[in-house]
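Fold sample X.
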Amino acid sequence: MKIGVILGSIRTGRFGKGVADWIMDQVALREDEGVHFELIDLKEFNVPLLDVETVPGAANKHYADKNVTAWSHAIDSCDAFVLITAEYNHGVPGALKNAYDVLGGEWRGKPVGFVSYGAAQGIRAVEQWRQIVANFNQFDVRAQLSFSTFTDVRDGRFNPNERSSAELDNLLAALISAAKR
């Protein structure tokens, strides 16, 4: 089973990079469970704005843009996702929402767990994501992690509290269980 850990911020100096690095360190301990985790950094794909005439869901995973095709292959190869999302202006980040919108069937039916961050821990962004992923018949696990860009920092770097590892384990257990269905 392959779980994509999607780093959804493309900003310079993004807080989410520290979150993604921490998650990848944590999941390295789980590889022996027959589950492979792959970091998928949205910034590396340079996904263009959705401006094509063909609705992505009707494109049958064939896209004119090479960056969208590469993004499609990365997402399609996964069985489930951990979506690391920022909260911008009380909502989902535009680049990540666009990256969701440029694809169609690659997301369909695949479970997703949320890890959020922001001044208010990204809680509002996750609530919006739950509505978005429902459109793709994705099962979103209830367990989630939420980090503060104010309190989960030490010396200018991401520093989760001692409960975070156990909370991530709960999220991953629920996600893996959902992906096995």
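Fold sample Y, listed below.
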Amino acid sequence: MTDQEPTPPVPDVVAAIAGDRPLQLVWNNAIDGLTYQVGVVPDRLFVKWLPRRSGVTVTGEATRLRWAIRYIAVPRIRSTGCDAEATWMVTEGLPGENAVCDRWQAEPETAAVAIGRGLRRMHDALPVADCPFSWSAEKRLAGARRRAELGLLEVADWHEDHRALGVAGALARLERPPAVDQLVVCHGDACSPNTLIGEDGACAGHTDLGALGIADRWADLAIATWATTWNYGEGFEDLLLEAYGVGPDPVRSAYYRLLWDLDV
């Protein structure tokens, strides 16, 4: 949401959850999902509200959060709900602020290191053998093919590096995923805002785990590094990878960045 876009009205159910506590819209995503902060630190809650028309519900993320919280710092669910208009989830706040708040945008080196180290800890901590969720390239590519058949892929929304390929060219390039480097339980949306950074400059937790699942670690790393260029400018990709503990992989990064454009 940009400063020029109108603030969406507060859904009735969100207003009811907030009661007389302070309410702040903190995120408005591309499918008109809204996330609100209710109250203030240290007792703040967050409400994620997804309209039915988006075709997405909170169910998948809630299931993943309940699984992941046994191993890593993620939001604890207070409640979930649904009505004819939307589904929603209420979670407890974690310490820290997201990696694109004003403070961390002013300290991009600290943020990039925190994201890299936090992602490595997540990948090391979440057990592949016990994970019931998949985020494999093959599964995601099958979904992209279905959306292409339905005419739902919007080339104009892709990164400028990919638009010239067109739908057919992009699908052809994605036909053969690179060999897996290392299977891990991926975050599924490792963009900078989904890492929380504490006062000490270290990763304090992760949010937005609706796509969490087993995949090559480069499915996360390709996007985490790419996102630094959107949020902090050029020059922080290698720093993030160094903090994670791996060198650059241009081939896998290019593949998973293209897949990302067709998968979001």
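Sample Y note: The first strand starts at residue 23 and ends at 28.
Also: The chain has a mean pLDDT of 95.
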